[in-house]
Amino acid sequence: MGRYDLRDRIAALDPEKDHLEIYQISSGREFPWDYTRALEFALFRTYCVPSISRLLAATGEFRDRPQRRYDDTALLMAEIAAHGYDSGRGREALKVVNRAHGRYAISNDDMLYVLSTFVYDPIDWLSLYGWRPLHENEKLAAFHYYRAVGARMGIRDIPGDYASFRSFKTDYEERNFVYSATNREVGRYTVEIFAAWFPGFLRPAVRLGVRGMLDERMLRAFGFDPAPRWVGGLAAAGLKARARAVRLFPPRKESVLGKPKRNRTYPGYPSGYQPSDLGAPPPPDDLPAEFLRSSRQGQGNIDMP
C-alpha cells in the first residue's frame, strides 16, 4: 500500500453517505495522534465559556476526578467512532453520554457549540500540523459524522451545511468567550491534567507549553498570562517537524480506534469493560437547583437513541 492510497480511497467515497467510513479512516489510520491532541484542545476550548465552566465547577468533578472525567469522555467518543453510532456499543455509549447531560440544565446552544469544536478544531489543527493536507471529503465527512451524532444526542437546530456550522462556531465564540473565575478554575485543573502526564521535573515546562499553544482569545477568557512568544513558536516547530517525519512512515494497516492502549483510569480497557461502565456519577446532593434540568427542560429522551 502506498503512502497516499488511503487518501485516494477517501477521495472516491461520498462524504455524506460514507461519512462514518471516512471518519474512521481519517481519525483511526491517517491521523490518530493528531485527532487525539486536537480533541483534547477542543474540550479545553469549551471551558472558555462561563455557562459551561460554571456547571463543571459546580459539580466538583474537575476538582475531584479530573483524569477520570477526561478518560470517560475520550473513551465514550472512541466507542462511538470505532463501532459506529448505530452499533450496539455505539448506542450504549450514546446512552451514557445522554444520561449524563440530561441531568443538567445545559442550553442547546452550549451543546451545539461543544459539538462544533469536535468538527472544526481537528480540521484547524491538521491544517497546521498534519503530515498531509486534509482532503475536502475528510472535512465534510467530519461535519456529517458529528451532525449524525448530535442528532442522536437530542441537539436541536444543527446547521445543515459545513459553512453554516463553522459560522455558528465563530459567532458563538465572539459572543461567549469572556473571562470568568470558573473559566480560570476549570482551565487550571485541565492544565494540571496535562502536566500530570509527565515526570515532575517536566511539569513546569508543560504548563508553559500549554499556555504557548492557546490563542489570545482563550488566554483572555481563562485569565492566563501569555507565554513568551518563543514558546508557541518552538511548540509549532516541533509539531511540524513531527509531521515531516510521519510523512515518511508506511501507512497504518489497521485502525487504532477501539484498540487497547494505556489508560490512567481504566488500565484494562477495553477488555472486560462495557460503555455502560463509564461516565460520571449522579449530581452531588448539594448542587444548586439552577444547574439541574427540570422536567420542563427536556432535551429529548436522555436514554436515546
TrEMBL record:
Coiled coil: none annotated. GO terms for molecular function: oxidoreductase activity. Signal peptide: none annotated. Residues 57-230 form the ER-bound oxygenase mpaB/mpaB'/Rubber oxygenase catalytic domain. Residues 294-305 have a biased composition (Polar residues). InterPro entries: MPAB, MPAB/Lcp_cat_dom. Residues 254-305 are annotated as: Disordered. This is ER-bound oxygenase mpaB/mpaB'/Rubber oxygenase catalytic domain-containing protein. It comes from Actinoplanes philippinensis.
